[in-house]
Amino acid sequence: MMASHEVLQAFVQAATQGSFSAAARKLGKSQSTVSAAVASLEIDLDVVLFDRSSRKPTLTAAGHVLLQRAEQVLDAGNRLALAASQLSQGLEPKLSIAMSDTYQSGHFDAVLSAFEQRYPDMELEWLIAEYEDLIALVQSGRAQIAFIEAQEVYPPDLTGATVGERAELALFVSPRHPLSSLDGIDQQALQQYRELRLASVINPNENRPAGRVWSAPSFVMLMEMAILGFGWAALPRWLVERFANGQLVELNARGWPRSVAVDALWSRQHPPGPAGSWFLEKMLE
C-alpha cells in the first residue's frame, strides 16, 4: 500500500495543527475530507494514529513514529518534484569540478556550502589532478570546471578567469634530510639531491629537469615521499600544514616561497550549465 500525497498531507497537518478543523483550513479542504483521509490511512496501515477520546485528537505512540516517516516521504516527494522541474528547465544532473591541490580556499568552502543549500539533490563530483591532466579533464568534458595554477596560455577551446585568492608553494624536506641543516640554499645545492617533482599523467616527461628526479602526479604523493626522506619537493604550504603533522621542514631557499595565481577554467564549446555557471559566478566574485 502506498498512501497518496494528499492523505499524508492530511495526517501531517492534523498532527502539526492540533485538530482536523485547523488542518482543513490550512489545506483549504473540508473537515470531513481531512477526517476521512486520516481514517483511511489508519485502516490501510492497520494502526491507530490519533487518540480521539478527548475534544482534540492527540497522536498515539505509533502516530508519533509514523508522523516522522510521513514527513520524510512528503519531503522526498517535494525534492523529486523540484529536481524534475529543474532538469526540465535545463539544469545539469551532475557537476564535476577538477582541482589542483595547489589551491585551498576558505572562499571555495563557503561557495560549496552555498551550492549544497541551493542544489541539495544535485550530484557533485570532486576530482583532483594537476597541470595538463586538469586541462584534459575539461577538454574531454569529464569536468565542467577546473581550478588550476595559472598558465600563460590555454588551448583555444578553453577559457578562464583568475580567482581572487592566490596559493603559496615552498620547498620542504624531511628533518632527516641533509638539506634540512643548511641555510640560504641555492639551486646548485638543490641539484645535489633528488628532486621530488610533480608530473602529469598525460605528459610525464615534459619540462623534465636534469639530475636525479622522482615524480608523481599528485602533491599528496610527493609529500609522502618527502616525509620518507627520498628528496626535496615544492609543495603547497596549506597541504603541509594540514597533513604533514610536523614531519617536514621548510627550506630557506633563494626565490622561495612562491605565490602563484589560480585560474578557473571551462570549455568554450561546452560551457557549464546553470548550476556550474552559478558556481563560477560565486567563485569569481
Automatic annotation (TrEMBL):
It comes from the Bacteria. One of its GO terms (molecular function) is DNA-binding transcription factor activity. Keywords: DNA-binding, Transcription, Transcription regulation. The keyword Heme does not apply. PROSITE patterns: HTH_LYSR. CDD domains: PBP2_LTTR_substrate. Residues 8-60 form the HTH lysR-type domain. Gene3D superfamilies: 3.40.190.290, Winged helix-like DNA-binding domain superfamily/Winged helix DNA-binding domain. The keyword DNA-binding applies. Belongs to the LysR transcriptional regulatory family. PANTHER family: HTH-TYPE TRANSCRIPTIONAL REGULATOR, LYSR FAMILY TRANSCRIPTIONAL REGULATOR. This is Transcriptional regulator, LysR family. It comes from Pseudomonas mucidolens.
